[in-house]
Design a protein that fits this description.
elongated, two-stranded antiparallel ribbon, 150 residues, alpha+beta
């Protein structure tokens, strides 16, 4: 019986992958198209740890004004309990909460395939609010304010 010929192991060309922009390595299919190998070969490299998946968020750039506004908002939610003399958070029963769903035109989180030791891209913007988006309001929740019991 003849021995079957062994399959050739494709070597990972690190320099070729580094030449590819991060946007073109966001999916396995796109990465395989750019470097010219099969999908199964890229999956083997992932399993062996030669390349790895990396997820990336957009990080908010908080200005000093934004930080001050956040602190003021949180301080306004504090209430002094006169009986126990403790500071607690407000129950917020008198606040109306609007339930809404945002659909972003661009993804806030992206996945890239990178080499071990390679840093993923740093993506930032002034705020997530500056990514084009559409809002869908699908409900309103509130709790009526009742007079305190005497």
């Amino acid at each position: 019986m003849k021995d079957k010929p062994k399959k050739k192991h494709l070597l990972l060309d690190i320099y070729k992958i580094k030449q590819i922009a991060f946007e073109k390595r966001s999916t396995i299919r796109r990465l395989t198209r750019e470097i010219g190998v099969s999908k199964s070969q890229v999956e083997k490299w992932l399993k062996e740890g030669l390349i790895k998946a990396y997820t990336n968020d957009i990080h908010p750039e908080l200005t000093p004004t934004n930080k001050l506004q956040m602190i003021k908002y949180n301080l306004n939610a504090l209430v002094l309990d006169r009986n126990t003399h403790q500071i607690r958070f407000s129950t917020m029963h008198h606040v109306v909460h609007i339930d809404e769903k945002w659909f972003y035109m661009a993804r806030a989180m992206k996945r890239y395939y990178i080499l071990p030791g390679e840093e993923g891209p740093h993506r930032s913007c002034k705020s997530k609010r500056f990514i084009p988006n559409v809002m869908f309001m699908h409900g309103c929740k509130n709790r009526p304010r009742r007079p305190p019991r005497r």
